[in-house]
Amino acid sequence: MTTAALAPAVLIASPAFAAGTDAPAQGNQPAPTTPDRTAPGQSDEDRKTILAIINHPMASEYMKEAGHKAIADGPQAMRKFIETDQHRIRVDDYRIVLLRLLPDAGPGLKRGINEILDSATKAEQLRHFYEVTQHELRDDDNKVAISRLIGTGGPAVKEAAKKALESSPAGRAEFLKTGRYRAQASDDLVELARIDEGWDGPGLSEAISKLMNGSPTPAELRHFLEVTQYQLRDQDNRVTIAQIISVGGPEILKAGRAALAGTPRRPHRVPQDGPARGPRQGQGQGPGSQGPGSQGQGEARPPARTARSRATAPERAPGPAARPPAAVPERAPAAVPATPPSPPRATTERPSPPPARATTPP
């Protein structure tokens, strides 16, 4: 209760104020003022005070409701609201306001809010945190965020962040709100030029040229780098795959169709050297096709077709693991009869007949 608000009531109730030239004798003093009566004009002052409280921007709906109810209930209710109720409600209002700061607060500010909510019991403590401390903690969080941009951003972002770090709290907040995105746009334009220079696909290159020749916003540049460029890369890759499989063999056709049916990342693995894979497989089957291995086909086919049929037949097992079992049994039977018989037997049988034929005639 302020001094101005109490002044009329104190003056009227004071004996010194009542004792004048026309005052009654000491023993004939009037009865004290009853509690439900107020000095003339006090109700008007209390009503003005309550209206100022509930019209404040920080006043909550509950504060407004309680204030209007006190005015309607009369002088005693208004005095109680001014001296007690408004302070209790204000504590709750500040707690709600501080809780609303949490979603956008940095680590330091969040920690400070939780600590003040756990320890503060008076509205003055909460008000000081809201009006002073929260801005100090927010600036500390901004400094940490700017320092991270210096370590991870591009050249333009780093330069702008260093300048912001040396500026005022308002300058740091403004940099994080708008300045960082303008600096990022400069770095994004450089990155788009680099991508255009190293990419051969027509779709992506055309879109980059169109974007850079216009007036893109920082948000449009970010979206292109994070989303659109990969969509256009996939379209260009599909065109390239279609061109490759149009001139490739069966293996290239099979791999190309599988890549087109897969995710956008898979087309990067499609073999670009299709014709070179055929000779490598044919060379691996060459020796077998000249020997008994060629009889297993049942027809006299060129070695290239035999190699292809063996490579494509086992769908579940890889090619290199299927070749050794077929090659080992084919070579073993041909090698066993060829090596042991002729050299030893030829040397032992030829010397014996000539002496027998030479001794009989005489």
Characteristic key phrases:
mainly alpha, single chain, 362 residues, elongated, disordered C terminus
Describe this structure in words.
The protein is built from 17 helices and no strands. It is mainly alpha-helical. Helix 3 runs antiparallel to helix 4 (61-73), helix 4 runs antiparallel to helix 5 (75-101) and helix 8 runs antiparallel to helix 9 (169-198). The radius of gyration is 49 Å and the shape is elongated. The termini are far apart. Residues 1-37 and 266-362 have low confidence and may be disordered.
Rg estimate, integer Å: 49 Å
Largest sheet: none
Average pLDDT rating = 73
Shape: elongated
Order of helices and strands: HHHHHHHHHHHHHHHHH
Count of helical regions = 17
Q: What is the number of beta strands?
A: 0
Q: What structural category characterises the helix and strand content?
A: mainly alpha
Topology record:
Layout: H1 3-13, H2 15-18, H3 42-54, H4 61-73, H5 75-101, H6 107-119, H7 123-152, H8 155-165, H9 169-198, H10 202-213, H11 218-247, H12 250-260, H13 274-290, H14 303-312, H15 319-335, H16 342-349, H17 353-359
Helix pairs in contact: 3-4, 3-5, 4-5, 5-7, 6-7, 7-8, 7-9, 8-9, 9-10, 9-11, 10-11, 11-12, 13-14
Short description:
With 362 residues, the protein is mostly helical. Helix content is 73%, strand content 0%.
